[in-house]
Write a structure and sequence with these properties.
The protein folds into 5 domains: about 200 residues, Rossmann fold (3-Layer(aba) Sandwich); about 200 residues, Rossmann fold (3-Layer(aba) Sandwich), CATH 3.40.50; about 60 residues, no CATH class; about 140 residues, Sec63 N-terminal domain-like fold (Orthogonal Bundle); about 80 residues, no CATH class. The protein is about 50% helix and about 10% strand. The N and C termini lie far apart (about 65 Å). The chain has about 725 residues and is of the alpha/beta class. Helix 31 packs across helix 32. An 8-stranded mixed sheet has the order 10-9-8-17-14-11-13-12, with helices on both faces. It has a 7-stranded parallel sheet with strand order 3-4-2-5-6-1-7, with helices on both faces. The chain has a two-stranded antiparallel sheet with strand order 15-16. The protein binds a DNA duplex (25 and 15 nucleotides) through helix 6, helix 10, strand 15, strand 16 and helix 27.
DNA sequence: CAGGATTCGGTATAGACAGCATGTC
DNA sequence: CTATACCGAATCCTG
């Protein structure tokens, strides 16, 4: 099917033809035949890289140019910015594109001027909770990676959000994009959607198993040279020899880094002079970006054309690795499943070095077929590689047979809604009521009838769980007591808007109410005892230290569980360990030291601090609303967690381009406030932080200084929360 | 006796969304 | 509670 023949405006057709797209891929053509451009709901369950994005674009452009508004829902922030950048290419067509995620946000209402908006599923939910007006104008919703409905922690949000959007805009077109799953027909039926099911790929994919020096595919086998003792390295070298790159999936970070290191000497030999120079440049950028031990290991790997990629790396480092791979310099990325879903980063050959992964409940377990397909699907760059190869490794003939049956010949699993537990429902029940989607139990059940859970299981089973949720929410004062109607209280509305688990909010409120003195530790641990926090695991070497710390600070914890209750106490120690990490962070311990002490990466520090900052914000808000102690303390801690700094630096941190390190330098040199800084000579400051930064600093405080106002020591906003405190009665 | 191979025991185990208001080194 | 791979240390083997 030709682009030219589509029912689209000429400018759209020209846009695609100019970029070299003249003809649709077969699955895309099928989607058009099934009504993609006529506003029909559609579920496309087709492989990665077979043109899902184009489908979404066509539907969105068609609708937007007819005066509509499109919402593109993604599961990852990184994916949101990838799509955002792509859609910005439509600006020539007069189309405005916006992005909304937790870390990057054009203000809600301002977002509404855009024609296409990219958002994560949680952010979409949050926008709904905040009753963002423009959401009613949405005419197309694209739900990317919709198979994530199966995910226990994030699936419920996605399905409830889709149900809300459909309830709000019944005429809105839904385009759901999914990996191939077992029960795509069921998912399509739930969405009242036509189903496009296809295994077609633009680049051939050969899936097979490597065993005993040979790569076995379905219908052919090919020997691979064995210059080294490591089979995976030999596969990598073989790919390089053919001019391709490899992506190696590992099941742990340690292995992931280990393999990149191990491959260094072999891969290095294959590099050209230009490659070496380009790689040295990337390595230097890595070192400029981060000074931890891990980043110097990464830099050394990159110099040799290998790299590793996992969530312990900060975002800039990950991006450097991804870009280096995309432009062909890095020959091998050894990765945890970070790269399996999401980002578009294909390679000639994918090697799955371990198909088993540890889970605390089940021990080592084979990964799901769906996940295997996602990794294998990364093989083969469209238009660049003649074919792609996905390789599993077997140590025995039996294993080879097993792998063929289990993964290569097998279809993906069915997906199942995970909405049916109190943990999943609690927050959505509250937000549904808070938003006025339901004012009675019947209306609530009626709304839930529209979820995938009800479609799969009937919502009969939901009723009892919903009652549990309602009881909980009433008991915690988030819903009015009246049993006949469902109305959220002021507290309930706040909890819904702050996007926190009502259980977390309840725990925080209880902790603040019952606390004696509120120390840093008390508040941090309170945050860490919340289900929204992500905890660190205890390693055996941690027990001693963490336990000693608990003993020494016993009075500062709101509650210490009985050590003989092993499971509960173990959990508690994990909370304390995470609190200790945050303590180190807000006392300005250097990042590398924290990494070494806790055995984590820089990326983990930031993500932990990020969550903690959010929950601390919630604590401050709750304390304010409920008139509990701790509002001031929590607000300060929120800021300290954001910057990772001690209290005495708070004033200096208000200056842009001054973070924990520079603020400390200035402070130690005797410039303890912005006022003292304003009185200093530019030379003094330049000696401390460099002339460029010094100039920036003076530009900011200088401006304040020249303002006719006064010479008070607080030229910058230090908002006192007094007066805006509302005491709710309950 | 040195150096490499082998075995044994201890140990650790993927990822990532959200509020709010603007810019770390 | 279920497994496995890796690491380092101790031990064994070989030239």
């Amino acid at each position: 099917m030709k682009i030219e023949s589509l029912d689209l405006s000429d400018e759209i057709k020209r846009f695609y033809e100019n970029s070299g797209i003249l003809e649709l891929y077969p699955p895309q053509a099928k989607a058009v035949e099934k009504g993609l451009l006529e506003g029909k709901n559609l579920l496309a369950a087709i492989p990665t890289a077979s043109g899902k994005t184009l489908l979404a674009e066509l539907a969105m452009l068609k609708s937007v140019l007819a005066g509509g508004k499109a919402l593109y829902i993604v599961p990852l922030r990184a994916l949101a910015s990838e799509k955002f950048r792509r859609f910005q290419e439509f600006s020539g067509l007069g189309i405005r594109v916006g992005i909304s995620t937790g870390d990057y946000d054009k203000r809600d209402e301002g977002l509404g001027i855009n024609d296409i908006i990219v958002a994560t599923s949680e952010k979409t939910d949050s926008l709904l909770r905040n009753e963002t007006a423009w959401m009613q104008e949405i005419s197309v919703v694209v739900a990317d990676e919709v198979h994530l409905i199966d995910s226990p922690d994030r699936g419920p949000t996605l399905e409830v959000t889709l149900a809300k959007l459909r309830r709000m805009n019944p005429s809105c077109q839904i385009l759901a994009l999914s990996a191939t799953v077992g029960n795509a027909d069921e998912l399509a039926a739930w969405l009242d959607a036509e189903l496009v099911l296809s295994e077609w790929r633009p680049t051939d994919l050969m899936e097979g198993v490597f065993y005993n020096g040979t790569f076995y595919c379905r219908d052919k086998e090919k020997p691979v040279e064995q210059p080294t003792k490591d089979e995976a390295i030999n596969l990598v070298l073989d790919t390089i020899k053919e001019g391709g790159q490899s992506l190696v999936f590992e099941s742990s970070r340690k292995n992931c880094m280990g393999f990149a290191k191990k491959a260094v000497s072999a891969v290095k030999k294959t590099l050209s002079k230009e490659d070496r120079e380009a790689l040295a440049g990337i390595a230097d950028e890595i070192l400029e970006n981060s000074e931890t031990d891990i980043s110097s290991v990464l830099a050394n790997c990159v110099r040799a054309g290998t790299a590793f990629h996992h969530a312990g790396l900060t975002t800039p480092l990950r991006e450097l690795v991804e870009d280096g791979f995309r432009n062909g310099k890095i020959k091998l990325i050894s990765s945890t499943p970070t790269l399996a879903a999401g980002l578009n980063l294909p390679a000639r050959r994918v090697v799955i070095r371990s198909y088993r992964r540890y889970s605390s409940e089940m021990g080592m377990q084979p990964i799901p077929v769906l996940e295997y397909k996602q990794m294998a699907g990364r093989a083969g760059r469209p238009r660049l590689d003649p074919y792609g190869e996905a390789v599993l490794l077997a140590k025995s003939y039996e294993e080879l047979v097993f792998l063929f049956e289990k993964y290569i010949e097998a279809g993906a699993e069915d997906i199942w809604s995970k909405l049916g537990t109190e943990n999943a429902l609690r927050t959505h029940v509250l937000s549904t009521i808070s938003n006025g989607f339901a004012r009675t139990k019947e209306e609530l059940m009626d709304f839930l009838e529209a979820t995938f859970f009800a479609f799969q299981y009937s919502n009969f089973g939901l009723s009892a769980v919903v009652d549990e949720c309602l009881n909980f929410l009433r008991q915690e004062g988030m819903l009015e007591k009246d049993p006949d109607i469902l109305v959220s209280t002021v507290l309930g509305k706040l909890v819904s808007r702050l996007y926190i688990d009502p259980l977390s909010a309840a725990l925080i409120a209880k902790g603040l109410r019952e606390a004696g003195t509120l120390t840093e530790l008390t508040l941090l641990h309170l945050i860490c005892s919340t289900p929204d926090m992500r905890l660190m695991y205890m390693r055996s070497q941690d027990y001693q230290e963490v336990n000693d710390y608990v003993m020494a600070h016993a009075g500062e914890f709101s509650r210490i569980p009985d050590p003989f209750n092993i499971a509960e106490y173990e959990w508690f120690l994990g909370e304390v360990k995470t609190s200790l990490l945050l303590m180190d962070w807000i006392h300005e311990k250097p990042e590398n030291e924290i990494c070494l002490k806790f055995g984590i990466g820089e990326g983990d520090i930031h993500s932990t601090a990020d969550i903690a900052e959010w929950i601390m914000h919630v604590a401050a808000q709750l304390a304010g609303l409920l008139g509990l102690k701790g509002a001031k303390e929590a607000t300060e801690l929120e800021k300290r967690i954001r910057y990772g700094a001690a209290p005495e630096l708070m004033d200096l941190l208000d200056i842009r381009s001054v973070g924990r390190v520079r603020a400390r330098k200035l402070y130690e040199a005797g410039f303890k406030t912005t006022a003292e800084l304003a009185a200093a000579s530019p030379e003094q400051i330049a000696a401390l932080v460099g002339p460029k930064i010094a100039e920036r600093i003076f530009k900011q405080i200088g401006r304040k200084g020249t303002a006719p106002e006064s010479t008070t020591t607080e030229p910058l906003e230090k908002g006192s929360p007094e007066g805006q405190r509302t005491i709710s009665d309950f």
